[in-house]
């Protein structure tokens, strides 16, 4: 084989073999990238399908107005002391009359003595009635304070539950978004590798065709019939 023909044949053969191996490697790389992209896409689709529903953290909040009442509405009038006052006045008057009869005192003295006893009993009765009214008022105020404390605690618990739901939802959302970002990056990377592999396969095919073309051109140049002059 003439040396001028051997060199193009060797060069063309090397280009053809290199292109053949290059095509095989590029095809394998393209398939691997496509499989990785498909797997990442399936994972992303599944994550999106399983994503948690949007929740209303205040859904469980209820109307607490039923806890309220008006303790002042039950305040009554302290009549027991007034009744005691009348009874004790009657007893005092009767005792005074008995004393007058027993001692033979004048009617004027008996009247004065009865009035003094009655006035004393009035003061005692008024003091007892005032104490009863004050005690009832204090009981109503205490009930009102207790209701306010219960209401505040119920509101605090409802607020804490709503905040807890909101925190859990937000934490899960952040985790899902991070996972979706990671899978999206994997898909983008696989697409780039797939595109590069396809480009490499095209380049290898072009190299093979170029090698064959070089071999054919060299052969035709060295073995074509000589044009006679």
Task: Note the topology.
Blueprint: H1 3-49, H2 80-103, H3 107-223
Helix pairs in contact: 1-3, 2-3
Provide structural commentary.
- The longest helix has 117 residues, at 107-223.
- The protein contains 3 helices and no strands.
- It has helices at 3-49, 80-103, 107-223.
- The model has no long low-confidence stretch (mean pLDDT 74).
- It is mainly α.
- The chain is 82% helix and 0% strand.
- It has one domain.
- The two termini are 26 Å apart.
Task: Sum this structure up briefly.
With 229 residues, the protein is an all-alpha fold. The protein is built from three helices and no strands.
What characteristic shape results from the CA principal axes?
rod-shaped
From the N-terminal CA to the C-terminal CA, the straight-line distance is 26 Å
Work out the strand percent. under 5%
Give me the number of helical elements: 3
Helix content class: over 70%
How would you classify the helix and strand content by structural class? Answer: mainly alpha
Average pLDDT level: 74
Biggest sheet character? none
Report the strand count: 0
How many discrete domains?
A: 1
Q: What is the helix/strand order? A: HHH
Low-confidence stretches: none
**Taking Cα atoms only, what radius of gyration do you get, to the nearest Å?**
55 Å
